[in-house]
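Rotation project, supervised by the postdoc (A.L.). Task for the rotation student: set up a whole-complex structure prediction and record inputs and outputs verbatim in this book. Inputs entered:
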Amino acid sequence: AQKVTQAQTEISVVEKEDVTLDCVYETRDTTYYLFWYKQPPSGELVFLIRRNSFDEQNEISGRYSWNFQKSTSSFNFTITASQVVDSAVYFCALSEADSGYALNFGKGTSLLVTP
Amino acid sequence: EAGVTQFPSHSVIEKGQTVTLRCDPISGHDNLYWYRRVMGKEIKFLLHFVKESKQDESGMPNNRFLAERTGGTYSTLKVQPAELEDSGVYFCASSQGPVLYNEQFFGPGTRLTVL
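Outputs recorded:
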């Protein structure tokens, strides 16, 4: 069974729009970590955030914000006032004790921001 | 400080041939991970080294795949003989300690095409 679901395959927005990327996860562990990575056209995976299961505080970093809701098993990512440079594939990932803490990735959401 | 490097960046081989992918982790990182993304699917964990020891190889698809990390420095992933379904992007990542406490840094990936 897929542990991380990113239902949005592709999203296209116009610059300056806000956009939210959805991530729903599934785990039986009480201790786990959630991650977001960005994959720009150059191909490497760039770490954006790590959140542990005991910390439901939302986080804001510049134009990026993350909403962690254990009740709905979701860890959504919002980009405010999107820019062309935000165009990339974004991956949500889960790390659990049962899997030796290896990363379980979603299929990714391809975000295109047009001028 | 140099990041995770992978060689080659691209490899095109014919079915039945052998290919060896190399990953050089960030210096001092004991933990090394291999992941694979097959076209249109999620990034899947293959295996995890701690120094030269295989900590978890539960994600290795079959015995055509052999990973080594002699001396606990760089790692190689050999596919022999390659099949069409092995095509994809192979990512390597390293971390200083367990992913619970340490960010995994990813390399740019090796794109493997099996014809």
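Student's summary: The interface with chain B takes residues 2, 4, 33, 37, 42-47, 50, 91, 93, 95, 99-108 of chain A (CB under 8 Å).
Supervisor addendum: The CA atoms of residues 17 and 85 of chain A lie 13 Å apart.
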